[in-house]
Amino acid sequence: MPEQLWFTEILNRYFGHAVTSAMNAVHVAPAYPNAPINNFIAMEILVVGILFLFFVLVRSQLSVESPGGLQHVMEGVYGFIDNQSHEIIEHDYKRFTPYLVALGLFILLGNLIGLIPGFVSPTATPTVPLGFAVCTFIYYHFHGLRKHKHHYIKQFLGPVWLMAPLMFVIEVVSHFARVLSLTVRLYANIFAGDMVTLAFFSLVPIGVPIIFLLLHLGVSLVQTFIFVVLATVYLAGAVGDEH
Q1: Taking a C-beta distance cutoff of 8 angstroms, is the pair 44, 111 a contact?
Q2: CB 185 within 8 A of CB 223
Q3: Is the dihedral of CA 199, 202, 204, 206 positive or negative?
Q4: How far apart are the C-alpha atoms of 237 and 29, rounded to whole Å?
Q5: pLDDT digits (tens, 9 = 90+) for 156-195
Q6: Is 105:51 a contact under the CB 8 Å cutoff?
Q7: pLDDT: is 241 or 32 the higher one?
Q8: First and final C-alpha spacing in the chain
Q9: Can you state the angle between helices 39-60 and 69-88, rounded to 10 degrees?
Q10: Could you write out the DSSP letters of every residue in the chain?
Q11: pTM, whole model, 2 decimals?
């Protein structure tokens, strides 16, 4: 059985049996029946819980006359992503801002939670960034189809009809490559950051690791920004009007 974090142990103690039973019901045998919840799933659950409590707290303190600090922070985050969406997507951009804000906050907190002793970053395992990438892939294609209907396929055919079969194959491959690119970029950077920070904590536990903690903080912010920007660009390409 792999080593479990304290939070993972709590989840497996109280919910492990129910999770194992549910997996067996759909004929998926867990690798460890006594501990079906691994550390990264536990961290995702924790991130969702923290964000839920944060949103409830912000919602309870909303005020027009005297907005608090948390409200200012969320208004700043929302406004930044909303303005970015307006610049990139332009028409009907506000429809996508809630998804992009939720995506950015989840990725950022998932990146940063590994800096807290006793936790790990869920984004340091490839399956979690893959989940973000697949959700984004489905999301922007869904809205492309919603807006353009069957004309959406024209984006995959190119301007020259004789080259359409070849262009279709190239476009399909390139769109699936986006999933791989989003996954590997986020996973590799956060995993490398965690490993470097852990290595220097083991070698020089005082002073020096602070530099790498700050570096990891910067990498987490940059990778979150890149992921959200790319998701916005893909949305703009899917829903944009031809000029």
Answers
A1: no
A2: yes
A3: positive
A4: 41
A5: 887 777 888 899 999 999 999 999 999 999 999 999 888 8
A6: yes
A7: 32
A8: 58
A9: 110
A10: -----HHHHHHHHHHHHHHHHHHHHTT---SSTT--S-HHHHHHHHHHHHHHHHHHHHHHT--SSS--HHHHHHHHHHHHHHHHHHHHT-TTGGGTHHHHHHHHHHHHHHHHGGGSTT---GGGSTHHHHHHHHHHHHHHHHHHHHHHGGGGGGGGT-S-GGGHHHHHHHHHHHHHHHHHHHHHHHHHHHHHHHHHHHHHHHH--SSHHHHHHHHHHHHHHHHHHHHHHHHHHHHHHHHPPP-
A11: 0.91
Report whether 132 contacts 107 (CB < 8 A). Answer: yes
Residue 227, both tokens: 């992921």
Reported as a pLDDT band with limits 50, 70 and 90, residue 140 is: very high
Cβ(58)–Cβ(71) below 8 Å: yes
* Residue 172 CA to its chain's centroid (Å): 23
| Nearest-angstrom CA–CA distance, 152 and 76 | 34
- What would the two tokens of residue 41 be? 């799933």
Place of tokens 């570096």: 215
CA distance linking residue 199 with residue 193, whole number of Å: 10
For 12-26, how does the pLDDT look when each residue is reduced to its tens digit (9 = 90+)?
Answer: 999 999 999 999 999
